[in-house]
Backbone:
């Protein structure tokens, strides 16, 4: 959900910064950048776990992330400064105690995967796993996420759309400003 709605994650990060009293000292672009990076890292780690890529490093990062998030959600559950953690956006709303319980289960799973990570069956060849794929995927995924969303007039609309709009043949269709692909499609159709 974080990759689909990075602006929602940005707003939740801004809520956390306000609770910690850091909102005034953090540049305005940083919460959005943090939301995109968080979505990117979580997605990459999930894919790497699924395919068994860089098993030791991937499982270590998963344990480290859960080792930070679990105490944070315990603090949220005890002090209740924010009513919803925002883990799943508006799709699923969890209380802080439900979020803490979820994170405890995920931490147990992460420690288990870290401890027995060598039992993960890799779905890629050793040659592919030996490439430096871990750091090189991050810039590409970040670029895709930044191309997908932008701030529109009301700060919540999509400005750049890299995926095709399947209703573009309708007469009422107008391309999104700045979207190169849709404008090229229209020009090509007129030729």
Residues:
């Amino acid at each position: 959900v974080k990759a689909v709605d990075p602006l929602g994650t940005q707003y939740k990060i801004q809520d956390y910064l306000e609770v910690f009293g850091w909102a005034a000292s953090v540049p305005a672009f940083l919460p959005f950048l943090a939301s995109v990076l968080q979505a990117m890292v979580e997605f990459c780690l999930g894919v790497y776990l699924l395919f068994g890529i860089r098993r030791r490093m991937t499982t270590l990062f998963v344990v480290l992330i859960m080792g930070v998030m679990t105490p944070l959600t315990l603090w949220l559950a005890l002090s209740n400064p924010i009513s919803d953690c925002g883990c799943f956006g508006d799709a699923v709303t969890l209380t802080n105690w439900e979020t803490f319980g979820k994170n405890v289960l995920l931490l147990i799973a992460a420690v288990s995967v870290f401890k027995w990570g060598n039992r993960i069956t890799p779905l890629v060849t050793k040659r592919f796993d030996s490439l430096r794929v871990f750091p090189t995927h991050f810039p590409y995924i970040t670029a895709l996420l930044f191309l997908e969303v932008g701030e529109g007039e009301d700060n919540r609309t999509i400005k750049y759309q890299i995926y095709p709009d399947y209703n573009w043949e309708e007469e009422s269709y107008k391309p999104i400003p700045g979207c190169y692909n849709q404008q090229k499609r229209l020009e090509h159709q007129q030729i």
Q: What stands out?
A: The helical segments are 6-20, 30-51, 55-79, 96-115, 126-130, 133-148, 180-190. Residues 148-173, 175-185 have pLDDT under 50 and may be disordered. Residues 2 and 39 are 5 Å apart (CA to CA).
